[in-house]
User: Fold these one by one.
Assistant:
Number 1:
Amino acid sequence: MSKQVLVTGGTGYIGSHTVVELQAAGFRVVIADNLSNSNIEVLDAIQKISGVRPDFENVDLADKLATDSFFDKYPDIDAIIHFAAFKAVGESVQKPLEYYHNNLNSLLNLLGNMLRYNIRNMVFSSSCTVYGQPDKLPVTEQTPRKPAESPYGNTKAICEDILRDFCHANAGFNCIALRYFNPIGAHPSALIGELPLGVPNNLVPFITQTAAGIRNELSIFGDDYATPDGTAIRDYINVVDLSGAHVVAINRLIQDKQKANYEFFNVGTGTGLSVMQLVKSFIAVTGVQLPYKIAPRRAGDIEKIWADTSFANEELGWKASRATEETLLSAWNWEKSVRGIN
Ligand code: WQD
């Protein structure tokens, strides 16, 4: 019997892409998601891509009783990938208690059930946000974490600490935190992708919605940073590449290849691109009009960050391979398919 992986938040953006990659690698998948920021139709799209409909349960993982009942129904799970979380930085500043309640309790409830059902493996969605604005670039896993700039970021740092302490106390239980840089793009089928509710906060959905005519104009937040063209620099990673890192991490856990029972890795491309470079690249590769203007800096933004990925490359044997142009085109194809544009 193939191994069964629980993907929390599996109908979400990164979750849905990871479900597809897990299925391709021969895993059985069960999704737990409360659909607070995703859509049940994603299951049809996953089935179209892979030919297999994953099991699905609508569960609020911050609810202990509901989470316990879920595990009673699925007692044979081999590993968990925990994506489900609130992720809007600005909203977290307005609603800190909701962020702490949701993001911390869901992890605690999952870990409690790992002990109850002897599920020994977890991959956790962490974020490069734990580094803040690093003093030295690129950031390695040894780069010190900085105090979080937002409650959202703080939940990621606290969850990492919970995992470290949990693994320290429970030999034989294994966790890997993946610190994502900026995931962008969509599955090449254009059947799944990122679907933000309302006005997008993130750059690439704002670009594709502007190109689709849903937004009038893109605002580029700041052109007076200490970078070559003055706009902020990030490490944009293709979501399918990122999903592949989860499959590698799951195999590492299941095959007991870890060097320590709690590990964390940078998951990026190793290359920093400025907002202006990304915008120009989008225009060049799609040939569409993209009205944009320079606007003031956005509160809370850091100037620049990109990953040193050598630890992930060497230790996991994983490397991001898709070019930014291909990735931006996939984001545009997804936007067009959602909006019915030819
Ligand atoms: C990228 C760059 C903006 C929108 C956030 C979280 C992080 C992570 C990913 C996830 C910045 C600029 C953006 C726009 C712009 N976690 N920008 N105009 O802020 O690097 O990271 O998302 O869930 O934890 O903090 O990503 O895509 O919002 O911004 O100029 O309309 O694009 O200022 O320099 P960010 P982003």
Note: The two ends are 43 Å apart (CA to CA).
Number 2:
Amino acid sequence: MENCLFCRIINREIPSSIVYEDDEILAFNDISPQAPVHILLIPKQHIRSTEEITEVNKQIAGRLISAASEIARQKGIEGYRLVFNCGESAGQSVFHLHCHLLGGRDFNWPPG
Ligand code: AMP
Ligand code: ZN
């Protein structure tokens, strides 16, 4: 989708530091890391947010989560956090579905 930052990253119009790619998913380092490991996993299909997950495309959410856990395993990260910010009030700033993989430090609960 035009003017979508993450679609532009998928199309290589904006550079990124890619850590994993397959036919459906791209994973790259977050430009503003909030932990020693901070990777974003996105579907190549433009899905705005979790609210656009349907019966037809719901398998992509599982793909994002399983790819995130595989990356964490390969990096030897023991505890990690997977975050989907859903909607502006929850901190979503880019409206292309993404999963944050955060690791390499301890995390508090409840989150801020
Ligand atoms: P969210 O606030 O959940 O929508 O997450 C969007 C994330 O995208 C933030 O953690 C940003 O740091 C990250 N981000 C924004 N621009 C870029 C970029 N050009 N490359 C990598 N990550 C980015
Ligand atoms: Zn997009």
Note: The first helix runs from residue 5 to 10.
